[in-house]
Amino acid sequence: MATAKAKLEKLKKISETPEAQAADRTWQRIEQKLNYDGRYSLLNPAESMLRFGRLTNEESEYLGRVMGWDAEYFNGVDWNAASSAFIAECLMLPEKRIMNTMSYVHPSPDRKPVFNAAEKSNSGDIEAYLSGDLTFDELATMYPAQEVKQP
Predict the structure, then answer these.
(1) The pTM of the whole model exceeds 0.85
(2) Which DSSP symbol is given to 148?
(3) How far apart are CA 10 and CA 33, in angstroms?
(4) CA 39 to CA 54: how far, in whole Å?
């Protein structure tokens, strides 16, 4: 019990620092802009994007870091390789196909071997993945990736 109390005190001290207070204020502004009416989790992608447009650059960057969206291979997509035009076109697809299409065309290094193995099988599983009928985890189970040996 003493360790839990000590950890709670340490967290309380951290929350009182100027950096933590600034982060809390930024988070509150983001929450107010995205969820001002309590409906954010129910919005369709287009309405969500409209609300994201209200965020300042600082708020967008902060939200991206908190959510992990700034990771190079977030959601199995090589974001550095994907062009803005391609991303915009993918957003026009039905919701369950957006990320599958993006990760197939610009896969992260850990997904490439699975896609290569599935393509070689000519079984139609890639088409099922792109249509949203198969998840990546299901595809990876069906086609376990061969580890690349480093020289």
Answers:
(1) no
(2) P
(3) 31
(4) 16
